[in-house]
Design goal:
1 helix; 0% strand; flat
């Protein structure tokens, strides 16, 4: 008999709606909520890649 296992549990913190981007800004940022925008550093891929 197979047992039921819980595979994952999501944790989503509550977010307060404060403001939103204009439609054009939202398209450029990929979200209409400024609180969700994060900057990322571009890093080189080292080995194992295709191409």
């Amino acid at each position: 008999m197979m047992k039921s296992f819980e595979l994952a549990e999501a944790y989503i913190p509550y977010q307060w709606y404060t403001t939103s981007f204009s439609p054009m800004e939202a398209l450029m940022a990929g979200t209409m909520f400024p609180e969700l925008v994060r900057s990322y550093e571009k890093k080189e891929c080292k080995g194992g890649g295709v191409g």
